[in-house]
Amino acid sequence: MPEPAGSAGHLADTTGSARLFAAIEASPRLRAAATVVLAFVVLAVVLLVLRMFTRVLG
Fold first, then answer.
1. Nearest by Cα to 39 from 50, 29, 31
2. Collapsing DSSP states into helix, strand and coil, what is residue 5?
3. Residue 2 within any structural domain of the chain
4. Rounded to whole angstroms, how far apart are CA atoms 25 and 34?
């Protein structure tokens, strides 16, 4: 029986995110690459927040 359109299973099937996460977990190189990308995203967000605070306070 197919899953309802609003369910998480349907979302995972249409985006392929479940396969992507499974591939990242299975491969050490992909896991390292994903960690580096995540670190840069976190760094960018922290720098943006600091920039906003310095504009507000400065």
1. 31
2. coil
3. no
4. 10
Residues in the chain: 58
pLDDT tens column, 24-36: 899 999 999 999 9
pLDDT at 3: 55
Residue 12 belongs to domain spanning: 8-57
Domain-located, residue 30 = yes
How many separate domains does the chain show?
1
- For residue 20, give the amino acid letter: L
Query: pLDDT over 90 for what percent of the chain?
Result: 52
Q: How far apart are CA 15 and CA 17, in angstroms?
A: 5
